[in-house]
Write a structure and sequence with these properties.
about 525 residues; mainly alpha; 22 helices; about 85% helix; globular
């Protein structure tokens, strides 16, 4: 059993690893994107995101089975019931092999007739088809190796998975640099580099499983069809939720391709880089809380689970303001320096339209763990389905009502954010409290503090911008540093508790003094 000191130390390690992972991914994405856009053009660049979106549709085949397996295996493992954990483990692994063959068949047919399904410039047909094929292979490898990701979660060693991600991103970046430097540029290089990343990730996860959870293994005699049925019954709500996500966001680049234009799709894909990175950061940070929450729930430590929920809101709120304030205050300067040949005003406007729900949703990102560990996915799934269906219908109808390509793009970027505010401010805090058998207003105090904190940071930093407008990368880094200092100092006294401040200061002293 871990002591409080060791739990806190592991939490700090996991958090630091998540932040380092984000920083490395940020450097790679923003270091390579301008070169890729300049080399292959924004038109071709848009197909990278489009291919990833379309291939997520295949997750509808696998999500019901795989979405809840981590929860069931972790709880059985923590209870000491290794035999039952192995039955879930083996049953899912063997079933995924069958699903991989099904996906391969479906995707192969789509790739053969791809130019009849989406708009592709004639000169890019082969490149885009090869890109789709390579990314499909990535997905299939990821599916087959999916059960190997559970070990670091069970042992609360997310720092290891973050180190793996850092190394994998470096491998991907080096692959892209070498391919674009020594060969004629092609969009499918992104798929090939992604496959190198996927293969390395699968191998690393296999090693982690062998070392951390050697008790778990795949034996044919452990296959239990009853476990598959149990997982499917629990995972059906995840399936519906994923369908809703696809309706709400997974069709955005496809709609841009079919109804707006391939160049506009490329610009829209560029503006999605920042939101994707921010969401990735917060998914990594919120994942730090998931093992502890799951363990507390399995051990029926309800007070500790509630404290962990409050702690997650405070810490996620603390980090929310930093990237968003940097983006909203100095985003136009960033785009002007990052992509000097493009219209920075349009790019930042599209980006803000796509992110203005995040101040409401990011502080509660860890609450998605609550629905999973309590196995209460029905109403959260139905709400998200309704929310995303509304997004899709509004956008789809707008494509026929709005004539201007520019306005269509603005509708496409902003509709999800409008509906996201309802999700973040109404549903997540109320239903999260309901799942924990708490009053529906339990989490609003911390949420209001988070919003007040963000608004104060914006006001202070827009005041700084009035006197300091960066015109070089050095000045922009200085501006981001000033914003970060303002957010950290403000957040220390608005959103963090006295215990949080003492904890963070002690960790800094231990690290640097």
């Amino acid at each position: 059993m871990l002591t409080d000191s060791s739990k806190n130390r592991q939490f700090a390690i996991n958090m630091m690893a998540s932040l380092i992972t984000f920083a490395v991914g940020l450097g790679i994405r923003f270091g390579l994107t301008p070169y890729i856009v300049r080399t292959i053009g924004p038109e071709a660049y848009g197909f990278i995101g489009l291919s990833a979106n379309i291939l997520t549709y295949t997750s509808l085949i696998t999500i019901a089975l795989n979405s809840m397996v981590g929860r069931f295996i972790t709880i059985k493992y923590c209870e000491g019931n290794i035999d039952e954990a192995n039955k879930y483990y083996a049953s899912v692994f063997l079933s995924n092999i069958v699903l991989a063959f099904v996906i391969t068949f479906v995707v192969s047919l789509c790739i053969i007739w791809l130019e009849y399904l989406i708009n592709i410039p004639e000169k890019l047909v082969f490149d885009v088809k090869l890109l789709f094929a390579l990314m499909a292979i990535n997905n299939i490898i990821g599916l087959l190796a999916g059960t190997w990701t559970i070990a670091t979660f069970i042992k609360n060693r997310l720092d290891l998975s973050n180190v793996r991600t850092i190394i994998g991103n470096v491998i991907k970046a080096l692959s892209l640099i070498l391919l674009f430097s020594f060969f004629k540029p092609h969009v499918w290089y992104l798929g090939l580099a992604g496959m190198f990343l996927t293969i390395y990730t699968a191998f690393a996860n296999y090693r982690f499983t062998s070392v951390l959870t050697p008790e778990l293994g795949v034996k044919k005699e452990n296959f239990d069809f009853g476990k598959i049925v149990e997982l499917l019954k629990s995972g059906v709500w995840s399936l519906i939720s994923r369908l809703g996500e696809i309706l709400g966001q997974g069709f955005d680049l496809l709609l841009a391709n079919l109804y707006i234009g391939m160049i506009e799709m490329g610009y829209f894909a560029i503006t999605k880089n920042v939101p994707v990175l921010i969401l990735g950061l917060f998914q990594s940070i919120s994942a730090v809380f998931a093992p502890t929450m799951t363990r507390y729930f399995a051990e029926k430590k309800h007070d500790e689970l509630l404290n962990e929920c409050h702690k997650s809101i405070r810490i996620l709120s603390f980090f929310t303001a930093i990237p968003l304030t940097c983006l909203y205050v100095y985003g136009d300067s960033f785009y002007r320096l990052w992509l000097p040949t493009e219209n920075s005003s349009d790019l930042i406007f599209l980006t803000v339209l796509g992110t203005f729900a995040l101040p409401y949703t990011l502080p509660l990102e860890s609450f998605w763990n609550i629905f999973t560990i309590t196995n209460k996915l029905k109403y959260s799934t139905l709400f998200m389905l309704g929310n995303n269906v509304a997004v899709f219908l509004i956008v789809f109808v707008s494509m026929y009502i709005v004539e201007s390509s520019e306005m269509r793009l603005f509708v496409l970027a902003g509709t999800r954010s409008f509906c996201g505010i309802i999700r973040g401010f109404v549903f997540l805090p109320m239903y999260g409290a309901h799942c924990l058998l708490l009053p529906k207003t339990t989490f609003y105090k911390n949420l209001f503090k988070a919003l007040a904190y963000f608004i104060i940071c914006l006001l202070i930093c827009f005041g700084i911008k009035y006197f300091f407008e960066p015109n070089s990368w050095g000045q922009l880094i200085l501006a981001f540093s000033l914003v970060t200092i303002v957010c950290v100092i403000t957040g220390m006294y608005i959103v963090l508790s006295k215990f949080d401040r003492i904890y963070l200061l002690n960790k800094i002293k231990e690290k640097f003094f």
